[in-house]
Amino acid sequence: MSDHELRVSKIRDGTVIDHVEAGQALNVLAILGIDGSEGFGVSVGMNVPSDRLGRKDIVKVEDRELSQSEVDVLSLIAPEATINIVRDFEVVEKNRVTRPDGVTGVLSCPNRNCITNADEPIETRFDVVADGVRCDYCATILRADIAEHIDV
Ligand code: CTP
Description:
It is a single chain. The protein is mainly beta. The protein is built from 2 helices and 9 strands. It has helices at 25-32, 68-77; strands at residues 14-21, 42-50, 54-62, 82-87, 90-96, 102-104, 125-129, 132-135, 141-142. Helix 1 runs antiparallel to helix 2 (68-77). The radius of gyration is 16 Å and the shape is elongated. The site of cytidine-5'-triphosphate has 13 residues, from strand 1, strand 3, strand 4 and strand 5. This is Aspartate carbamoyltransferase regulatory chain.
């Protein structure tokens, strides 16, 4: 897309999460724990035309970089996403997310009887499987609702 067609302004410093599957932008914000009260600039584009994806969402967060565990969880809901680090208006780093084998300590298990919900000093661990993520302790599978179970 040429510059004059940009839907969302360029940012000076921060992170652009691009090529997010259309419909997932608000879940990306949930994963990053952003609701606007933090004070940094956040721009969201939804259903933006994309050569590669047809339609995509895009999230730009100013003055903030992402932790590896945030990127790991993002990859579960936005497997095609590109994470661009922007400094002084230039993209200085661009990485495709990669699907991790599992995520530790970032998702809570929805099964109330799971040992991870029993007040024991146990960290949650989910394995990434074809149709979602599976709790290592009780085998409950999280699918579309992954974003609702994020602890980070
Ligand atoms: N971007 C931004 N602010 C900047 C620089 C880039 O918001 N100062 C955004 C662009 O709008 C784009 C993304 O960051 O959505 C990646 O920028 P760039 O690498 O320049 O674009 P493309 O080459 O089109 O990226 P890709 O090849 O990953 O599609």
